[in-house]
Amino acid sequence: MVFPAELKYTKDHEWLDSTANTAKIGVTAYAIEQLGDIVHIELPKVGETFTAGSAFGTIESTKTVSDLYMPIAGKVVEVNQAAVGKPESLQSDPYKNGWLVKIEVAGKPDQAALLDAKSYEKYVAEHSD
Question: H-helix or E-strand containing 118?
């Protein structure tokens, strides 16, 4: 399983692609593999604000429903309607076109809560069934 090096990751299995003021957020390939067939995604509305670590939506598979957690604080500026309309597309492309929301970053991210690709890969290996 590949985890793109340019992204940051959380222990809740979200990824973050951040520039100075904005960030794309999605779900890792590992999480999607664990969930199985994705059947529904519920995401926030544009303009909603979230603190780091707060739930911002849900992802539903044939196995379970899981909360999605915001890796950093910010305001939603765009929702990936293509992913909402075709949630199964996340299984083939969780990183490039599989982003879920774009946010306007509020404040500085807690770098201690974000993992680089190697650290996330190690975390997944240690916590796999």
Answer: helix 117-127
